[in-house]
């Protein structure tokens, strides 16, 4: 009987535990994509607000609605996480914090700073 040992291996991604450094890197990429995807809407709102006084008041009323505030929660996290993870990546490019424990600490620090900024923004928005 013929046995094929070159069959693909099924990886259950829900059972793989990624290190915190990998999670921060993946989060950095996802947040960058989401910020880029939201850019046309932000530019549109900015353009409407500059056209006239009515446009400005429409944008202000839109931004003050509860539904928009709820949508701004993930956007604020995307922005803050992308900022702090980006600074972390720049430091790694300059070979600062490359050692294993330092890299773990900076990943946790970037995540924590993003969450603190999210909490501060939530208090300010609501």
Describe this structure as you would to a colleague.
The chain has 126 residues and is mostly helical. The protein has a single domain (20-125), classed as Up-down Bundle (3 helical TM bundles of succinate and fumarate reductases). Helix content is 77%, strand content 0%. The chain contains four helices and no strands. Helix 1 packs antiparallel against helix 2 (53-63). The longest helix is centred in the first third of the chain and has 32 residues, at 20-51. The protein is elongated. The termini are far apart.
**Roughly how many Å is the radius of gyration?**
21 Å
Please tell me what the overall shape is: elongated
- The number of domains is 1
CATH superfamily: Fumarate reductase/succinate dehydrogenase, transmembrane subunit
State the helical fraction. Answer: over 70%
Low-confidence stretches: none
Beta content comes to under 5%
Provide mean pLDDT, rounded: 91
Reading the helices and strands in chain order gives: HHHH
Classification by helices and strands: mainly alpha
Query: What top-tier CATH class fits best?
Result: Mainly Alpha
Tell me about the largest β-sheet.
none
Query: Any idea of the CATH topology?
Result: 3 helical TM bundles of succinate and fumarate reductases
Q: Could you give the count of β-strands?
A: 0
CA distance, first residue to last residue: 69 Å
Known CATH architecture: Up-down Bundle
Count every helix, treating DSSP H or I runs of 4 or more residues as helices.
Answer: 4
């Amino acid at each position: 009987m013929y046995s094929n040992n070159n069959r693909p291996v099924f990886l259950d991604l829900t059972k793989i535990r990624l290190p915190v450094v990998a999670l921060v890197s993946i989060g950095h990429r996802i947040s960058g994509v989401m910020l880029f995807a939201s850019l046309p809407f932000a530019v549109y709102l900015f353009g409407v607000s500059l056209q006239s006084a009515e446009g400005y008041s429409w944008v202000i009323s839109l931004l003050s609605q509860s539904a928009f505030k709820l949508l701004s929660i993930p956007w604020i996290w995307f922005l803050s996480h992308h900022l702090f993870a980006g600074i972390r990546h720049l430091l790694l490019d300059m070979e600062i914090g490359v050692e294993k424990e330092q890299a773990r600490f900076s990943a946790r620090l970037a995540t924590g700073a993003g969450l603190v900024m999210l909490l501060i923004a939530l208090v300010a928005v609501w």
